Amino acid sequence: MKRRNLFVFFDSAYQGFASGSLDKDAWAIRYFVSEGFELFVAQSFSKNFGLYNERVGNLTIVAQDGENLTRILSQMEKIVRTTWSNPPSQGARIVSKTLNCPELFAEWKGNVKTMADRVLLMRDQLKGKLQALNTPGTWEHITQQIGMFSFTGLNPKQVEFMIKERHVYLMASGRINMCGLTSSNIDYVAQSIHDAVTKVQ
């Protein structure tokens, strides 16, 4: 990236949800900063704070000198004024209070880890159940992917079968929300995927 003089823009939508560790999930960003890159980081708190309707986040700018930073800030202020000017502050206040209070921050970190561990467990169990059913194909990608969503590898016709015949809802691309899996429905979902793969081409 240095050789090609590319500008880096990170999208940090799931910090903490990928691995269960805020630090581990921030590794790539911190590495690029340590290598001297100027960069933008867009960070959302919609998922890791459960603030879906509040649209809370931030844009972090790493610049090499103060003059550039001042110019960037000036442009950002113009964009903010013309785009949304005065967004609701409730969600931002919740995030700020949580991140700046040691007790609340520790509790939130624990909650994020609990959710991440549950998603990782569901990934592992879904892969195991598909393998136990001898579902054609390889299912390693389910545990190799990270975050709340997974690409199943199902084609549009198989997805249509899942939705219309089994009432398991996912995107036409085969992308499924792993948070929707529970110990009470994972057998049904695995069997539905198996049937989609074996009955629909």
Plain-language structure description:
- With 201 residues, the chain is mostly helical.
- It has two domains: 2-100, Type I PLP-dependent aspartate aminotransferase-like (Major domain) (Aspartate Aminotransferase, domain 2, 3-Layer(aba) Sandwich), CATH 3.40.640.10; 116-199, Aspartate Aminotransferase, domain 1, CATH 3.90.1150.
- It is built from eight helices and five strands; from the N terminus they run E-H-H-E-E-H-H-H-H-E-H-E-H.
- The protein has helices at residues 22-25, 27-34, 66-83, 90-100, 102-132, 140-144, 156-166, 186-199; strands at residues 8-12, 39-44, 57-62, 149-151, 175-177.
- Strands 1-2-3 form a three-stranded mixed sheet, covered by helices on one side.
- It is elongated.
- The two termini are 41 Å apart.
- Its EC number is 2.6.1.1.
- Belongs to the class-I pyridoxal-phosphate-dependent aminotransferase family.
- GO terms for molecular function: L-aspartate:2-oxoglutarate aminotransferase activity; pyridoxal phosphate binding.
Provide the fold topology:
Elements: E1 8-12, H1 22-25, H2 27-34, E2 39-44, E3 57-62, H3 66-83, H4 90-100, H5 102-132, H6 140-144, E4 149-151, H7 156-166, E5 175-177, H8 186-199
Parallel strand pairs: 1-2
Antiparallel strand pairs: 2-3, 4-5
Q: Kindly, what is the distance between the CA atoms of the first and last residues, rounded to a whole number of angstroms?
A: 41 Å
CATH superfamily of the largest domain: Type I PLP-dependent aspartate aminotransferase-like (Major domain)
What's the number of domains? 2
| SS-based class | mainly alpha
Shape from CA axes?
A: elongated
- Tell me the number of strands: 5
Radius of gyration: 21 Å
As a percent range, the share of helical residues equals: 40-55%
Please, what is the average pLDDT? Answer: 94
CATH architecture descriptor name of the largest domain:
3-Layer(aba) Sandwich
The helix/strand series, from N terminus to C terminus, equals EHHEEHHHHEHEH
